[in-house]
Design brief:
little secondary structure; 8% strand; two-stranded antiparallel ribbon
């Protein structure tokens, strides 16, 4: 079961981002992402070296900003 990070860690999210996942026909994912999935990402910054990757554990929210919790 997923427990919201803010409740579990005792502080609000470090950042929020809005992004889109491409489906299989768009050369993207075959299945929708889910809570507790890990994602690799990279962002441009002067101190980053070539081939550095970072990992985040995104927490998906609904359109009102509420964490999506399992229905079961």
């Amino acid at each position: 079961m997923h427990h919201p990070y803010e409740k579990r860690l005792g502080h609000p999210a470090d950042f929020r981002v809005k992004y889109t996942f491409n489906n299989k026909e768009e050369r993207g994912r075959e299945r929708l992402p889910f809570q507790r999935i890990r994602s690799d990402f990279w962002y441009d910054h002067d101190c980053h070296e070539v081939n550095w990757l970072f990992m985040i554990w995104p927490e998906f929210e609904d359109q009102s900003g509420n964490v999506i919790l399992p229905t079961k």
